[in-house]
Structure formats: C-alpha cells, structure tokens
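User: what does the whole thing look like in 3D?
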Amino acid sequence: MHVSEEQLVLYRYGEAKDAAAIGEHLAACATCRAAYQSLERALAAVDQMPAPDPGENYAAAVWERLQPRLQQSRDREGAVRSLTLAALFPWRRLALAAAMAVLIVAAFLLGHFWPRPQTVARQPLPEQVRERILLVALGEHLERSQMILIELANANPGPQLDVSSERRWAADLVGDNRLYRQAAARAGDPAMTAVLDDLERVLLEIAHSPSTLSGGELERIQRRIESGDILFKLRVVESKVRRQEEKPNGL
Amino acid sequence: MSRPEIGRQEEFRLLVEQHSRALFGLAWRMTGNQQDAEEVVQETFLHAYRSFDRFDGRAQPGTWLHRIAVNCALDLLRTRRHDAGRVELEAAGSDAGDAAPGPERLLLSAEVQRRLTAALRRLSPTERAAFVLRHYQGCPIEEISRELRMSENAAKNCVFRAVQKLREALQPLV
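Assistant: Here's the predicted 3D structure for the full assembly of 425 residues, as structure tokens:
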C-alpha cells in the first residue's frame, strides 16, 4: 500500500504523525519515493520565487508614511474615549443632546440616505453642510465599531483579558446601531439592514460579556467576528458611506 | 496599562524598525504584489498601534505583528477578490537570476514562474494564507489553524490543496 499524496505533503513539512513509518516506506518503495521527489522538486521551484527586497531604508519609509495616520488614530481614540465618558455620566443635558443627535441622523437617513419611492415627491435637499456632517457621523459609527472588533480579533488569547473598555464602547454603540438598522429596514435597504443586524449581534455579545475574558471566551468572540466576515462587510459599507461623503453634492 | 505617550511612540518606532522588512516579505507572499504588500504593512502597524497598550509582552512582538499582518492580508485578498475577481502576482524573481544561466534554463525558469504565478492566483485567500504560513514562515499546522481560526483538519486541507494545485501547474516541468 502506498503513501497518500496528503501524507507525503505532511511528511515533507514534518507534520506527519507516523513519520518514521513513512520514512521507512519511502526507502523501500520506488513509486512513493518518486512521488516524494516530484513533490520536493515542485516545492523547490516555489522557493525559487523570492520576495522582492524593499530596500535598506524601507523601515524608515514605513515610519514616515505611518506617522500622520498614527496621529489621526490618536485623535480618533481621544474622540471615542470622550464619547464613552459622556455615556458613563448621567448628565441629562448631555444624554438629551446625544439622543437628539442620533434621532436627527436616523431621520436624515430615512429621508435622504436611502432612495425614496418614486411616487413620493422629492423634497428639496437640506443644507449640504448638514448632510455631510450627518454622513460623517454614520461613517464614524461604522469606523468605531470596526475599531472594537479589530482590537478583539487581534487580541492575544491569554488566561485573562480585561475588555471593560470595549464592553462600554460596544454598549454605547448598540443604541445608535439599532436606530440606523431600523431606519435602513424602513427605507427598504436589505443589504445595509443585514450588515447592521450582524453588527448589532456582535456588539451585544461584547456588551454582555464579562469584563475579564478567559482565553476560551475571547476565542468564542473572535470566531463570532470571523464567522460572518463582519469586518469585511463593515469595511465595504463604510467605504460606500465615505464615497458618498466625498461627492461634491453630498447625497 | 497606558504608557507615557513619548515612550509609547519610541517603543512603537522600534517595532516598526525591527519588523517592517519581515512583515513586507510575509505580506508580499500573501498578496503577490508590492503595492498591496506595502498597504498590508501600513495597516498592520496601524492596527497594532491601536492595540499597543494591550500588548503585554507575553507573546513575542514578531508573532503578534505577524498575526495582525495575516489578518490584514486576508482582508485585502478578500476585498481584491470582490473587486477584481483575482489577485495579481508580480514575478519578483524574474530579475533575480543573474548568474548567467543558459538560454534553455532561462526559458524553463520563466515558464516555471509563469505557471506558478498563475497557480498562486487561483488559490483561495485561505489556501494561499495557509500555504505561505506553512511553506515560507514555517508555522506548524496547529498555529495556522489558530491564526486562520479554523480546525486543524481544515488547515491541513488548505495546505494540501494549495500544494496540489501548485504541483499540478508544474507537473510537466519538474
């Protein structure tokens, strides 16, 4: 009986469980030995394709290009943290202002972000500046959501991980997300509704998780994030919103 | 947990200095072209920076960055698939063999590269990621399964399918 191709590949990479037996078989069987040598030649050809050298000063160039983006990241981080603080303190005026802002965004989305039925007479567009600010708010919501998911997706599964900040951020975002989702559903945009629905489930799971996660709990959340390709979908939706932002006439 | 900002910047700059080239190599293998590889390196460091305060040093920085880079490259590959339906792969080695081989050998080598390039393009993002991690990075299957968040059997299958496709592409030549 010959060694399977899959076993040969695993043997080549030192991953075969019965490596000693396979080695003995290869020494004795000319057919399998020829198959193994053919595999070796193919993989040697793969090794002949070197990655290009990015140059001696590559690290310096990376750092130079990175700096402005790191600054932006610090600015956004500050904005997210201040939002979190705002949500933590039960100041009525602040809460009212935040609720009003969310309602305005939802109303705007209902009216303008998704197309209206043809039978309804189109109202004049509101001020372009206002539209742009509201689109930015939606873009920021999607971006903040991504930041939380990326942090958790890339976290090292250790014995304990403190995720109390992420829990608070997720709890903050759930309410806004619900309004966006409902608005999208009412406006008849199933694709946007589905993405926001997926996002809401993940945000809820994070918001309801313990503030300290065990390795297993973190991996469960990571699998949840990974399973629906939620990060990819969010990126697509966000880039769509950003493109709308960049249009000279807004919407 | 948070570090003073200046110290944090300096620590992070050192990480960039030490790991940029290795990450570029990994990203190039995963994406197949220089522009995408550079984008992956940038995204990797950006994501790393955002969670830098949470990096507690239990894992090696290289391993940590490497994991982020794999995820960034996978995201990019999936985006490219949606955008263009395929991943471009530059023949980086085409200028590398300057040891004056004979014309027959040059032709054969060019044909091998052409076939490999085409075969690599046809790999799915996860097959390509699993193959790059196993073949070039020397990651064990168990680690690949963790990085790609799949079972060990699925990771083995990805590596196997990738090798099989590459072998089939090269079959008449090697």
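In plain terms: Strands of chain A lie at 161-162, 212-213. The two ends of chain A are 68 Å apart (CA to CA).
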